[in-house]
Design brief:
homodimer; about 400 residues; alpha+beta; Nuclear Transport Factor 2, Chain: A; Dna Ligase, domain 1; Methane Monooxygenase Hydroxylase, Chain G, domain 1
Chain lengths: ~400, ~400
């Protein structure tokens, strides 16, 4: 779907883009040539930044009709040692604001022309998420604030990316954690943002409070243990004014759940994924000064979350099953199903869609995402293929 | 120590090398330019193949005075599923020969001119190993067979690379597992090689027997469990004629010991190192049809071998210690110490040598190998640095 540069580059007003983003034109033409900035075909065509270009985040989307820009969502750094990170990064603010980091997928909702679009982290328009955003967010906020973008987490069982059932959400809900200016990416202070969302009846992620720097460590450790106990992911720690960049910190349980998921499809995930998570466990154990019993439990859980899912996958393959991940979407319009199927092809996901099932005024569609690399690798090893 | 190509390339008789290795001259000059073939300065200068060039293995060493070649030791593939691998790879031989894979370091000993050299896997001359080889192997064999190279494992507590104490070896011993032609790399059949070594009084690695293909799986599984029980590494399964390439298979205990070691110096090891070892555990568990109890134990051990060494390292650093690995060498000549110190610098190992300690007619030298990347990373995270 991504075609020749020369064919599409002329759709992009490079001069205007260069001026608005304050990067030289030749950086943009260079990025187009290297396909760092890619044309994406669709009902609403756009150019997306596959990686950062100068100071502009990867995931930035540039629309052509009408011309508009939605800046990519910046990567949030993680701390492995809570206390020293608080002292080091937030020493210039008196307090930090702590909000929940939910386990769903990151979405930016913006008004482009007269239509809402929901952008994925990578800067693609997801047609399914867009249908959901139209329902969940609506136009009211954007009529008053067309220059803003709502950044939030899409969470719930009807998520084709990160389906989670423990949040007590029926289908899919949207929780805002950031409001930014579309073109500059400038964020709004935490409490102002939360008040604004309340005004429009749009849910925000859970707020745990503002804590003095000196006390934040104990408070957050306690929050993390409680969140972990109910399988929730963790927190994002923020400068209340949103001048300093935020920092994330997560629970061991969420970490292990990620590993469990990734090792079921072990050959489809990056190896760094695994390594970073083992490191998080070790540093958290040291910071918490764990006794032998807790440490033993942590080791056991780590080992089980690595091996058991992988063993399950190998056994499935041995029994002739295809390694796939079952997800589902719930839509009002069957057109959305078709568009979503095309979208998954566009982003390279191999998926089998089952026939829609009418439930109330909606359709439930079960989808099997095929993890081909894990299928191939497991089958080969079971057949006696050697490991390099 | 590796200087400009043009300065050194003239030391190499490229035409002769091209003829003997049967690769075009331009491949060699190209490799010299890209530093895939590198000049190595030393008492005995050589050129080493840093990576494979055409069909020539990485680790191949080419000497200039006198001109000679020692082919690199070929990589041995590993099976994660024993039975299917036996069927798939050795179906054309009636039997397989099984020898122990010892846990030391791979060395090729050859006669170049009138002197023995001991080459590391990478194709460098290790001065320490060379001193040891002169003692352990001697010249008798090479006087009769100057065209052959002895490939074996250097094993024992006085190993600066892989010190192991469980083999009941006093200092360092050499066990032959392959005899090859220096220039062609052609291997000798297993029993012929073992008989030849016996003749010269040079030890070979342990031989478990020759097994019919149909029975080999049970026999080898049993051997692996026993070897694992005493912390030994595993086996190499060979075509007795050495026509088909051999295959290695290792115990879970050795796998876990590797992880324990690597996670103590977690940031100095490749991430693939971890991933491959987790995969081995999962496939072995499936092939052995483990019950819940054995599986639980395997998970616990995996988790402990990942987390405990890393936690130990973090705590050490927290207490202000430097993360280092203690090894030792035992030499007859203090010149060898000096040469070995220079050699470690050449290959980029950061090491602190303590004063030699006279023991009998030898010197024991304790060496602290500094794992700088793990030191830096751990210190930074403890100081609040964020994880990307």
């Amino acid at each position: 779907m991504r075609r020749d540069v020369s064919e599409f580059a002329k759709k992009l007003d490079i001069g205007k883009l260069s001026g608005l983003l304050d990067i030289p034109e030749h950086r943009i033409t260079g990025a187009l040539k290297r396909k760092t900035v890619q044309y994406v075909w669709g009902k609403k065509e756009l150019f997306r930044f596959d990686k950062p270009v100068s100071s502009i985040e990867g995931g930035t989307s540039v629309f052509t009709k009408p011309f508009d820009i939605v800046r990519g969502f910046p990567k949030i750094s993680r701390t492995l040692m809570l206390n020293p990170a608080l002292q080091k990064h937030f020493s210039s603010c008196r307090k930090v604001a702590v909000e929940e980091k939910m386990n769903g997928y990151n979405v930016r909702v913006a008004l482009i022309g007269d239509a809402l679009v929901a952008l994925t982290r990578g800067g693609f328009i997801c047609p399914y998420t867009t249908e959901k955003a139209i329902d969940l967010v609506g136009l009211d906020f954007f009529k008053d604030h067309p220059e803003l973008v709502l950044c939030g987490e899409m969470v719930g069982p009807d998520s084709p990316y990160v389906p989670k059932t423990f949040y007590d959400i029926e289908s899919l809900d949207f929780f805002v954690f950031d409001i930014r200016e579309k073109i500059t990416g400038k964020p709004m202070p935490v409490m102002k943002r939360r008040a604004l969302m309340e005004e429009y009846g749009i849910p925000s992620v859970r707020f745990f409070g503002e804590f003095e720097i000196g006390e934040a460590h104990n408070e957050i450790s306690q929050i993390i243990r409680e969140l972990g106990g109910s399988m929730h992911e963790g927190v994002v720690i923020k400068d209340p004014q949103m001048i300093l960049p935020p920092v994330k910190y997560t629970s061991s349980q969420s970490n292990c759940a990620d590993l469990r998921y990734a090792f079921e499809f072990y050959n489809d995930f990056g190896r760094d994924f695994f390594f970073g998570r083992v490191c998080r466990e070790a540093f958290q154990s040291v910071e918490w000064g764990e006794d032998e019993e807790s440490l033993k439990k942590r080791c056991r859980q780590l080992g089980e979350n690595l091996l058991l899912p992988m063993i399950k996958t190998i056994k499935k393959k041995k029994d002739g099953e295809r390694i796939a991940e079952n997800v589902q979407i719930r839509v009002k319009s069957l057109d959305t199903v078709k568009e979503f199927e095309e979208y998954l092809k566009l982003v390279g996901v191999d998926a089998v869609f089952e026939a829609p099932e009418k439930i109330g005024n909606e359709y439930l569609v079960r989808i099997r995402k095929i993890h081909q690399s894990t299928n191939d690798r497991t089958e080969a090893i079971l057949g006696g293929q050697l490991w390099s």
